[in-house]
Specification:
Layout (H helix, E strand, L loop, with lengths): L3 H14 L15 H10 L4 H19 L3 H21 L6 H21 L5 H41 L1
Helix pairs in contact: 1-2, 1-3, 2-3, 2-4, 2-5, 2-6, 3-4, 4-5, 5-6
Length: about 160
């Protein structure tokens, strides 16, 4: 049951990923919604949960894309594990920590993916990675802000119920 909502969210993100308009791209790269969901959930969990969710994220993302399934699984599993480690080591109440974590985790994930699936023009690939890092950081910041607001609202409701 612990994986139910994260997996549903990953599937929804993968479905939305293919339908993103080109207008939201930064330097030719759209945000990777599956990776953002993976990072957002894994930042709030332990490394084992992050690795397990990363495996599922790679399976879902690779299945939707239709190629390099193994590369998606391996890179997302490593990213989920590292994201879980960030929780144990760096996570704080500051909203910039998840956004900066999204940047370096996106770099790790995409560099690993590029190592397993080399592209002929490395300059364009690196520019797209930079654009994806920026868009993932902005999206992660927005998601973390919304989740924090919802959590605060939930705590207020619980406190009012006790009175």
């Amino acid at each position: 049951m612990r994986y139910f909502w994260p997996v549903i969210t990953l599937i929804a993100a993968a479905g939305l990923q293919g339908n993103l308009p080109a207008a939201i791209s930064i330097w030719g790269a759209k945000p990777d919604l599956v990776l953002v969901v993976l990072i957002s959930y894994s930042l709030a969990a332990d490394p084992a949960f992050g690795a397990g969710l990363g495996f599922v994220a790679g399976l879902v993302h690779g299945s939707f894309v239709g190629f390099s399934l193994g590369s998606f699984i391996v890179t997302r599993t490593i990213t989920g594990f590292l994201s879980g480690l960030v929780t144990a080591r760096l996570f704080s109440e500051n909203l910039l920590v998840p956004a900066l974590s999204a940047v370096w985790l996106t770099v790790v994930c995409e560099v690993l993916f590029l190592l397993s699936n080399p592209r002929p023009d490395l300059g364009i690939a690196l520019r797209k990675v930079a654009g994806e890092c920026l868009s993932n950081a902005i999206l992660t910041l927005l998601i973390q802000f919304a989740l924090r607001h919802l959590d605060t609202h939930r705590k207020i409701k619980l406190a009012n119920a006790r009175i």
